[in-house]
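Journal club prep, shared notes

We agreed each person brings one worked example of a sequence with its structure written out as tokens. Mine is Large ribosomal subunit protein bL21. I'm keeping it raw so we can talk through how to read the token line rather than staring at a rendered picture. Sequence first:
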Amino acid sequence: MMFAVIKTGGKQYKVAEDDIVDVEKLDAEEGADVTFDQVLMVGDTLGQPTVAGATVTGRVERQFRDKKIIVFKKKRRQNYRRKAGHRQSLTRVRITGIAG
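Then the structure, token by token:
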């Protein structure tokens, strides 16, 4: 089974065909095709830093926001407490092809 390692949104993902991955938000509509050209590895071929001419294509399934995480900071005995929440915007992509 062919797999690849791609880089997007500052993170690396190991993907294979028909995989579903949640990546940092991409500027693409639902149903649109996206191409990842920062391919770090395809099968046994390791890039330096990327594999020349290799691409991974996918289709955007949906845009959504992840569950909320709570960021809580405290310094004991200093009466210092800060509470903030964060919801990351994500894009769900189904990998349709690996070329290269």
